[in-house]
Amino acid sequence: MKKTNFDVYLEQQLKDKDFADRFSRAGEAWEVALQIAALRKGRGLRARPQS
Q: What pLDDT does 47 receive?
């Protein structure tokens, strides 16, 4: 499959160690957020309070 412009851009950015570290940590934080959302959904809780 052909790489998109974003794939090429991200590949270049990930060569920067500082960026790669931050990108990795952001991915880990996203995984935790998804796990929390799944747990809340499993308990019947809403994503945010009703107004």
A: 66
